[in-house]
Amino acid sequence: MHLRVSDLAVTRSGRPIFSKLSFTLSAGEALALTGPNGAGKSTLLRLLAGLLPMSAGKIVLDGTDPDTPFSEEAHYLGHRDALKPALSSVEVLTFWRAMLGRPALAPRDALDRVGLGHAATLPSAYLSAGQRRRLSLARLLVAHRPIWLLDEPTAALDQASEAMFGDLVADHLTRGGLALIATHTPLPIPTRTLSLKASA
Amino acid sequence: MNAFFALIRRDLLLATRIGGGAGVGLVFFLMLVTIMPFAIGPDMVLLARIGPAILWVAALLATLIGLDRLFQADEEDGSLDLLRMSGLPLPLIVLAKGIAHWLVTGLPLALAAPFLGLLLALEPQALLAVTVTLLAGTPALTFIGATGAALTAGLRRGGLILAVLVMPLMIPVLIFGISATSAALGGPLPFRTPFAILCGLGLFAMVTGTVSSALAIRGAET
Predict the structure, then answer these.
(1) Which of A17, A90, A99, A121 to probe the B interface (max B CBs under 10 A)?
(2) Partner-chain residue, chosen from B18, B86, B222, that has the shortest CB–CB distance to A86
(3) C-alpha dist (Å) from residue B132 to B87, B107, B177, B187
(4) Which residue of chain B is at minimal alpha-carbon distance from A12?
(5) pLDDT of A34 over the 80 cut
(6) Phi-psi category of B66—alpha, beta or left, where left has phi over 0 and alpha has psi -120 to 50?
(7) How many Cβ contacts (< 8 angstroms) between chains A and B?
(8) Which residues does chain B have within 8 Å of residue A78's beta carbon, measured at their own beta carbons?
(9) Cα(A128)–Cα(A58) distance, rounded to whole angstroms?
């Protein structure tokens, strides 16, 4: 599997965020997106997730079914955690497992993996910020999607959870996955780095 | 298809949990219908005559309760982003959410209508007519409202704008709902004509409502 992004440009409300952005990423590789606030890290991830229209450029993913849109090959973990306060961790994961298709780990196994096994039936309203983040990470495990688009995934995580996150991504990469991670802090795994500059 | 039913199931589950709002529309409906006899006075003949209209207007207003949260809740917490990446086409996502909304709002209204009709001194035949027309008409109200809900999803306090936007569009449903009811009670028209138009409006709203809501959600991305 091979991701090729060429000459990508995006304008938001008339303001160019970035242009002529090109990079490639192969199976098993992770790319860290760095840059100052407002450089377009989140915008790039949302664009790849198919949530924003691009002004120019091409995104090509080799080695997958050409009929499946790119956004359906990708998991997106954004700033908003998509959790419902009234639903328990298991209910949340069961729903996303059915919704996202291509089921992978069972909800309880995914919760054990992120260290939330004890909170399986707790409504997510009672979870702390770090636990909510871990529950969001568990969502990446219940459905199989080869590309992970992660927007500051380590925010609110403690050191142990950060190491756990490193293991999750490393596992994903060894299974031939790809990851794009926007971050301000050093990641617990080796990555290539793409540095975005603040637009004038 | 699995995803479609999973989404309906989740929305039903959320509606019945704390803060979900299932039943609020029904209670609002009950209150509107109960205060009417106080406002109009104990004139049984008058109440029986305008009773179907009261039930219909109350059902229309009760449908608007909670409609503003149809997409807003998912938009605020980022769920809508993930739903859009799920592979289920956006119009079908809207359809699933609309069906779930109707099951917890429109359907209970229609089922409660005959009991509340008793408060308004309706004849048995009128009770039946109102129930049947509400069953056929409330899906139209939900899906017309869905477009407004999609347009106002990104707005804080969009509920009032939503009501102002969609209420004029709901007028045809009201007209044919009421005329089908009065036809059933021996009006000049046969019951079938306005009722068929009412059902047609429901199907029309279901198709155009899902497509236009999907367009509104996509248009919000900039």
Answers:
(1) A99
(2) B18
(3) 36, 11, 9, 17
(4) B222
(5) yes
(6) left
(7) 81
(8) 78, 81
(9) 39
* Both tokens assigned to B27: 């209670």
In A, which residues are within 8 Å of B81 by CB distance? Answer: 46, 49, 51, 76, 78, 80, 82
Burial of B205 (0-12, 13-18, 19+ CB in 10 A): buried
Q: Is the dihedral angle over the CA atoms B126, B132, B138, B144 positive or is it negative? A: negative
**Closest chain B CA to residue A125:** B18
Report ipTM for this prediction.
0.91
How far does the CA of residue B60 sit from the closest CA of chain A (Å)? 28
User: Under DSSP, is residue B157 helix (H, G, I), strand (E, B) or coil?
Assistant: coil
Q: In this complex, which of B17, B20, B85 lies closest to A76 when CB atoms are compared?
A: B85
B99-117 pLDDT, tens digit per residue, is 999 999 999 999 999 999 9
The number of residues in chain A equals 200
Q: Which of A43-52, A57-66, A76-85, A191-200 has the lowest mean pLDDT?
A: A191-200
Closest among B145, B148, B153 to B220, alpha carbons compared = B153
pTM of structure:
0.92
Q: Nearest-CA residue of chain B relative to A98?
A: B3
Alpha-helical regions (H) of chain B: 2-16, 24-40, 44-64, 69-76, 79-84, 90-104, 106-119, 124-151, 159-184, 192-219
* Closest by Cβ to B14, choosing from A71, A82, A84: A84
Measured between beta carbons, the chain A residues lying within 8 angstroms of B17 are: 86-87
What are the pLDDT digits (tens) for A126-172? 999 999 999 999 999 999 999 999 999 988 889 999 999 999 999 99
Q: A36: which 2 tokens? A: 């100052």
Where do the domains of chain A lie, and which CATH numbers do they carry?
Answer: 2-195 (3.40.50.300)
